[in-house]
Design goal:
Rossmann fold, binds adenosine-5'-triphosphate, alpha/beta, 10 strands, globular
Protein backbone atom coordinates (compact mmCIF):
# COMPACT_ATOMS: atom_id res chain seq x y z
CA UNK A 1 0.00 0.00 0.00
CA UNK A 2 2.76 2.46 1.01
CA UNK A 3 6.22 1.77 -0.40
CA UNK A 4 9.32 3.91 -0.51
CA UNK A 5 12.20 2.61 -2.58
CA UNK A 6 15.54 4.24 -1.76
CA UNK A 7 13.64 7.49 -1.42
CA UNK A 8 16.06 10.40 -1.14
CA UNK A 9 15.62 14.16 -0.88
CA UNK A 10 18.46 16.65 -0.92
CA UNK A 11 18.33 20.38 -0.40
CA UNK A 12 21.64 21.60 -1.81
CA UNK A 13 24.37 19.89 0.19
CA UNK A 14 21.93 18.79 2.89
CA UNK A 15 20.33 15.35 2.73
CA UNK A 16 16.88 15.57 4.32
CA UNK A 17 16.03 11.95 3.46
CA UNK A 18 18.61 9.29 2.70
CA UNK A 19 17.63 6.12 0.80
CA UNK A 20 14.51 5.36 2.83
CA UNK A 21 12.99 1.91 2.29
CA UNK A 22 9.58 1.44 3.89
CA UNK A 23 6.76 -0.99 3.26
CA UNK A 24 3.44 -0.46 5.02
CA UNK A 25 0.87 -3.09 4.11
CA UNK A 26 -2.91 -3.18 4.37
CA UNK A 27 -4.03 -3.08 8.02
CA UNK A 28 -0.64 -1.93 9.31
CA UNK A 29 0.16 1.20 11.31
CA UNK A 30 3.77 2.30 10.93
CA UNK A 31 4.94 5.00 13.33
CA UNK A 32 8.00 7.05 12.41
CA UNK A 33 9.82 8.49 15.40
CA UNK A 34 12.75 10.88 15.32
CA UNK A 35 13.98 14.17 16.72
CA UNK A 36 13.30 17.49 14.99
CA UNK A 37 14.84 17.49 11.54
CA UNK A 38 15.09 13.67 11.29
CA UNK A 39 13.21 13.58 7.97
CA UNK A 40 9.71 12.49 9.03
CA UNK A 41 7.77 15.35 7.40
CA UNK A 42 9.95 15.13 4.29
CA UNK A 43 8.88 11.47 3.96
CA UNK A 44 5.21 12.38 4.23
CA UNK A 45 5.54 15.31 1.83
CA UNK A 46 7.17 13.03 -0.74
CA UNK A 47 4.35 10.48 -0.36
CA UNK A 48 1.83 13.27 -0.85
CA UNK A 49 3.64 14.47 -3.98
CA UNK A 50 4.06 17.92 -2.39
CA UNK A 51 7.79 17.73 -3.11
CA UNK A 52 9.79 15.73 -5.66
CA UNK A 53 12.47 13.20 -4.70
CA UNK A 54 16.09 13.75 -5.69
CA UNK A 55 16.26 10.01 -6.34
CA UNK A 56 14.30 6.87 -5.50
CA UNK A 57 10.54 6.42 -5.66
CA UNK A 58 7.39 6.49 -3.55
CA UNK A 59 4.37 4.30 -4.27
CA UNK A 60 0.78 4.52 -3.03
CA UNK A 61 -1.44 1.59 -3.94
CA UNK A 62 1.18 0.46 -6.46
CA UNK A 63 1.19 3.80 -8.27
CA UNK A 64 4.36 5.84 -8.47
CA UNK A 65 3.50 9.11 -6.70
CA UNK A 66 5.76 11.21 -8.88
CA UNK A 67 4.19 9.92 -12.09
CA UNK A 68 0.58 9.76 -10.81
CA UNK A 69 0.29 12.63 -8.35
CA UNK A 70 -3.46 13.14 -8.88
CA UNK A 71 -4.46 9.50 -9.06
CA UNK A 72 -2.62 8.57 -5.86
CA UNK A 73 -4.46 11.31 -3.94
CA UNK A 74 -7.72 9.45 -4.56
CA UNK A 75 -6.52 6.59 -2.37
CA UNK A 76 -5.17 8.61 0.52
CA UNK A 77 -6.23 10.83 3.36
CA UNK A 78 -3.82 13.20 5.08
CA UNK A 79 -4.15 14.60 8.56
CA UNK A 80 -1.43 17.10 9.51
CA UNK A 81 -0.82 18.57 12.94
CA UNK A 82 -3.33 21.32 12.19
CA UNK A 83 -5.98 20.10 9.80
CA UNK A 84 -7.23 22.80 7.44
CA UNK A 85 -11.02 22.84 7.46
CA UNK A 86 -13.42 25.67 6.61
CA UNK A 87 -13.96 27.43 9.96
CA UNK A 88 -17.29 29.00 9.00
CA UNK A 89 -18.78 25.74 7.74
CA UNK A 90 -20.24 23.09 10.04
CA UNK A 91 -18.78 19.62 10.52
CA UNK A 92 -21.36 18.14 8.13
CA UNK A 93 -20.75 20.86 5.53
CA UNK A 94 -16.97 20.33 5.68
CA UNK A 95 -17.39 16.57 5.38
CA UNK A 96 -19.80 17.00 2.46
CA UNK A 97 -17.37 19.36 0.72
CA UNK A 98 -14.20 17.30 1.21
CA UNK A 99 -15.80 13.96 0.40
CA UNK A 100 -17.39 15.65 -2.65
CA UNK A 101 -14.02 16.77 -4.03
CA UNK A 102 -12.81 13.21 -3.48
CA UNK A 103 -15.63 12.08 -5.76
CA UNK A 104 -17.96 10.68 -3.05
CA UNK A 105 -21.41 12.22 -2.80
CA UNK A 106 -23.01 11.05 0.45
CA UNK A 107 -26.59 11.59 1.66
CA UNK A 108 -27.10 13.65 4.83
CA UNK A 109 -27.84 10.50 6.80
CA UNK A 110 -24.63 8.85 5.52
CA UNK A 111 -22.63 11.97 6.37
CA UNK A 112 -24.05 11.81 9.90
CA UNK A 113 -23.27 8.10 10.10
CA UNK A 114 -19.64 8.74 9.17
CA UNK A 115 -19.30 11.56 11.72
CA UNK A 116 -20.78 9.26 14.33
CA UNK A 117 -18.30 6.53 13.41
CA UNK A 118 -15.47 9.03 13.83
CA UNK A 119 -16.62 9.58 17.42
CA UNK A 120 -17.87 13.16 17.05
CA UNK A 121 -20.77 13.92 19.38
CA UNK A 122 -24.02 14.40 17.48
CA UNK A 123 -24.59 17.88 19.01
CA UNK A 124 -21.46 19.02 17.17
CA UNK A 125 -22.51 17.89 13.68
CA UNK A 126 -24.18 21.21 12.85
CA UNK A 127 -21.75 23.47 14.71
CA UNK A 128 -19.14 25.59 12.96
CA UNK A 129 -15.60 24.22 12.92
CA UNK A 130 -14.37 27.52 14.40
CA UNK A 131 -15.92 26.41 17.73
CA UNK A 132 -14.18 22.99 17.68
CA UNK A 133 -11.29 21.77 19.83
CA UNK A 134 -8.30 20.24 18.07
CA UNK A 135 -9.49 16.76 19.04
CA UNK A 136 -12.87 17.42 17.41
CA UNK A 137 -11.20 18.69 14.22
CA UNK A 138 -9.04 15.56 14.08
CA UNK A 139 -12.23 13.47 14.31
CA UNK A 140 -13.60 15.34 11.28
CA UNK A 141 -10.30 14.45 9.55
CA UNK A 142 -10.91 10.78 10.29
CA UNK A 143 -14.51 11.17 9.07
CA UNK A 144 -13.18 12.53 5.77
CA UNK A 145 -10.87 9.49 5.48
CA UNK A 146 -13.83 7.18 6.18
CA UNK A 147 -16.13 8.97 3.72
CA UNK A 148 -13.44 8.87 1.06
CA UNK A 149 -12.89 5.17 1.75
CA UNK A 150 -9.18 5.96 1.89
CA UNK A 151 -6.81 3.02 1.53
CA UNK A 152 -3.85 4.96 2.91
CA UNK A 153 -3.69 7.38 5.82
CA UNK A 154 -0.75 9.76 6.24
CA UNK A 155 -0.49 11.50 9.60
CA UNK A 156 2.01 14.16 10.65
CA UNK A 157 2.05 14.76 14.40
CA UNK A 158 -1.72 14.23 14.67
CA UNK A 159 -1.76 13.91 18.47
CA UNK A 160 0.51 16.84 19.27
CA UNK A 161 -1.36 19.21 21.57
CA UNK A 162 -4.19 16.75 22.23
CA UNK A 163 -5.03 16.00 25.85
CA UNK A 164 -4.52 12.35 26.91
CA UNK A 165 -8.21 11.47 26.50
CA UNK A 166 -8.43 12.97 23.03
CA UNK A 167 -5.12 11.34 22.08
CA UNK A 168 -6.41 7.98 23.31
CA UNK A 169 -9.65 8.41 21.32
CA UNK A 170 -7.60 9.23 18.24
CA UNK A 171 -5.55 6.06 18.75
CA UNK A 172 -8.75 3.99 18.97
CA UNK A 173 -9.95 5.52 15.70
CA UNK A 174 -6.70 4.51 14.03
CA UNK A 175 -7.27 0.94 15.24
CA UNK A 176 -10.76 1.06 13.74
CA UNK A 177 -9.35 2.15 10.37
CA UNK A 178 -6.76 -0.59 10.67
CA UNK A 179 -9.46 -3.23 10.92
CA UNK A 180 -10.89 -1.83 7.67
CA UNK A 181 -7.54 -2.57 6.00
CA UNK A 182 -6.21 1.00 5.87
CA UNK A 183 -2.40 1.31 5.72
CA UNK A 184 -1.28 4.13 8.01
CA UNK A 185 2.01 6.00 8.24
CA UNK A 186 2.22 8.32 11.24
CA UNK A 187 5.09 10.69 12.00
CA UNK A 188 5.09 11.46 15.69
CA UNK A 189 7.10 12.52 18.74
CA UNK A 190 4.67 10.66 20.96
CA UNK A 191 6.52 7.45 21.89
CA UNK A 192 3.71 6.33 24.19
CA UNK A 193 1.01 6.67 21.51
CA UNK A 194 3.30 5.04 18.94
CA UNK A 195 3.70 2.01 21.21
CA UNK A 196 -0.08 1.96 21.80
CA UNK A 197 -1.22 2.06 18.17
CA UNK A 198 1.61 0.92 15.93
CA UNK A 199 2.16 -2.45 14.35
CA UNK A 200 5.69 -1.33 13.38
CA UNK A 201 7.89 1.48 14.62
CA UNK A 202 10.87 3.09 12.90
CA UNK A 203 13.36 5.50 14.43
CA UNK A 204 14.95 8.06 12.12
CA UNK A 205 17.97 10.28 12.47
CA UNK A 206 19.61 12.58 9.91
CA UNK A 207 17.27 11.37 7.16
CA UNK A 208 18.07 7.72 7.75
CA UNK A 209 15.95 4.94 9.18
CA UNK A 210 18.22 3.74 11.98
CA UNK A 211 16.08 1.10 13.70
CA UNK A 212 12.84 -0.77 13.05
CA UNK A 213 10.71 -2.81 15.43
CA UNK A 214 7.57 -4.88 15.39
CA UNK A 215 5.61 -3.01 18.09
CA UNK A 216 4.56 -6.17 19.93
CA UNK A 217 8.19 -7.32 20.22
CA UNK A 218 9.30 -4.35 22.31
CA UNK A 219 8.24 -2.81 25.62
CA UNK A 220 7.64 0.90 26.03
CA UNK A 221 10.77 1.23 28.13
CA UNK A 222 12.87 -0.65 25.53
CA UNK A 223 11.47 1.61 22.85
CA UNK A 224 12.28 4.70 24.91
CA UNK A 225 15.87 3.50 25.41
CA UNK A 226 16.27 2.68 21.71
CA UNK A 227 14.95 6.12 20.84
CA UNK A 228 17.26 7.97 23.21
CA UNK A 229 20.27 5.93 22.10
CA UNK A 230 19.43 6.60 18.47
CA UNK A 231 18.85 10.30 18.67
CA UNK A 232 21.72 10.66 21.16
CA UNK A 233 20.23 13.17 23.53
CA UNK A 234 23.40 14.59 25.01
CA UNK A 235 21.47 17.10 27.10
CA UNK A 236 19.95 14.25 29.14
CA UNK A 237 23.38 13.32 30.42
CA UNK A 238 23.74 16.65 32.27
N1 LIG B 1 12.37 23.32 2.09
C1 LIG B 1 13.50 22.96 2.73
N2 LIG B 1 14.67 23.57 2.41
C2 LIG B 1 15.82 23.21 3.03
N3 LIG B 1 15.90 22.28 3.99
C3 LIG B 1 14.77 21.65 4.34
C4 LIG B 1 13.52 21.97 3.74
N4 LIG B 1 12.55 21.17 4.31
C5 LIG B 1 13.20 20.41 5.23
N5 LIG B 1 14.51 20.70 5.25
C6 LIG B 1 15.52 20.06 6.12
O1 LIG B 1 15.41 18.66 5.98
C7 LIG B 1 15.64 18.03 7.24
C8 LIG B 1 14.46 17.12 7.58
O2 LIG B 1 13.33 17.94 7.92
P1 LIG B 1 11.90 17.36 8.29
O3 LIG B 1 10.96 18.51 8.36
O4 LIG B 1 11.57 16.26 7.36
O5 LIG B 1 12.17 16.77 9.74
P2 LIG B 1 11.11 16.19 10.80
O6 LIG B 1 11.65 14.87 11.24
O7 LIG B 1 9.76 16.21 10.24
O8 LIG B 1 11.23 17.24 11.98
P3 LIG B 1 10.07 17.82 12.98
O9 LIG B 1 9.95 16.77 14.03
O10 LIG B 1 10.68 19.07 13.50
O11 LIG B 1 8.84 18.04 12.19
C9 LIG B 1 15.86 19.14 8.26
O12 LIG B 1 17.24 19.30 8.46
C10 LIG B 1 15.26 20.35 7.59
O13 LIG B 1 15.92 21.53 8.00
Amino acid sequence: MIITDNLTKKYGAQTALDHLNLHVKEGEIYCLLGANGAGKTTTINLLLGFIQPTSGSAFINQLNVQENARATKRFLAYIPENLMLYPNLTAIENLDYFSGIAGKKLSTSDLKGVLEESGLQSEAFNKRISTFSKGMRQKVGIAIALAKDAKVLLLDEPTSGLDPKASNEFGLLLQKLRTKGVATLMATHDIFRAKEVATQIGIMKDGQLKQQFVADDITLSQLEKAYLNTVDYKELAV
